[in-house]
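Q: How would the structure tokens look for this protein?
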Amino acid sequence: QVQLVESGGGLVQPGGSLRLSCAASRSIFTMGWYRQAPGKLRELVASITSGGRTTYADSVKGRCTISRDNAKNTVYLQMNSLKPDDTAIYYCNTYPNTQLWGQGTQVTVSS
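A: Here is the predicted structure in token form.
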């Protein structure tokens, strides 16, 4: 099992930005950022292959950028123009088959 540690969340006003980080214990081919809002199912936000191919959910397309540093086994999610609907716990994990979930990092968008 790969160990995953997310960080970078926080409280931000609408329109603000955050950069999330995910450190993995070993290299992973395809990584994803997921989120789970209160009362909702966990959903995939973005994914990235080791070669840099990316996908985004329609809800974040144009506002978020996923990137990775393969040398550091770290994946990032830059989130801009944040909205209250982006409020959720954000997790990273392998994609499409997930492994043991980490603690996640809370993102709260509120004025």
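The chain has a mean pLDDT of 95.

Residues 39 and 88 are 10 Å apart (CA to CA).

Upvote if useful.
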